[in-house]
């Protein structure tokens, strides 16, 4: 089938995906279109990708467009992914933010491509485990994702045995989950700490409000440079001067935007940049005893 897909049909998919989700695909990713869109072809009783491309070009196909865009997203996630950012959040960011904010001010944390929820719930489990230092402080954790099915899964908080075995320490599993059938359901207490919403990072982010900490991990890798720069700049608008951004292990702001500067002490963590190019997060929080 690969050889048979015309350039025009391929371009239909490439243009649609880039404009709707930011995803950039080259012709070397044809196999991804084939494998991920096969269930849609079957459901819609379409002969091949060319027929689907034809259907997508017709007006009034919003539901089908959404299905295609969602099917092409990569939703892999796991609890405490890469561990280090979460340790940094627990040991550095959280204590500093708690100390530097007035007692009545809520701390807001955003998992900006939350997929099936593991990232946002990892943050919630940390907060729950740090309850003594958090005290009565209000903490809002928001998870957003473009993919409706993933937002649904995240809200459900039900994970397979395989998913809870990836990155989640066994004590956390025992403390915050209960067995349900062959899977594990996250506790009501942790679930109640997180709100999940459908949101496209390419859209207007202003209605989400300001966030002290943003986890935007393993999503920018799918975008081209101008889109990365645009999204990072929009995220910067949603952060106070001393806010903190965590990117994925294969992602960086270097060469993409000067809005953020890397923290010297932690790979993958960034503060909004001072004019001198230093991250303001450190400069501000060093004043905290
Ligand atoms: C690989 S997962 C990353 C999940 C999590 N952040 C992590 O690091 O484990 C990427 C997620 O980004 C979402 N995504 C892709 N493009 C998006 C966009 N334009 N706006 C919001 N979410 C998007 C996908 O639906 C997918 O769930």
Could you explain how this protein is built, in words?
This protein has 289 residues and is of the alpha/beta class. It contains 13 helices and 10 strands. A 7-stranded mixed β-sheet has the order 6-2-1-7-8-10-9. A 3-stranded antiparallel β-sheet has the order 3-5-4. α12 (225-237) links the parallel β7 and β8. α1 (7-21) packs across α3 (49-57). Mean pLDDT is 94; it is low at 284-289. Bound molecules: S-adenosylmethionine. S-adenosylmethionine (SAM) binds at residues 21-22, 73-77, 81, 113, 115, 119, 145-147, 150, 200-202, 217-219, 248.
Furnish the topology, listing elements before pairings.
Layout: H1 7-21, H2 30-43, H3 49-57, H4 62-71, H5 84-100, E1 107-111, H6 118-129, H7 131-134, E2 139-145, H8 148-156, E3 158-160, H9 161-165, H10 170-176, E4 177-180, E5 183-186, H11 188-191, E6 194-198, E7 213-216, H12 225-237, E8 244-247, E9 260-262, E10 269-272, H13 280-285
Parallel strand pairs: 1-2, 1-7, 2-6, 7-8
Antiparallel strand pairs: 3-5, 4-5, 8-10, 9-10
Helix pairs in contact: 1-3
S-adenosylmethionine (SAM) binds next to loops.
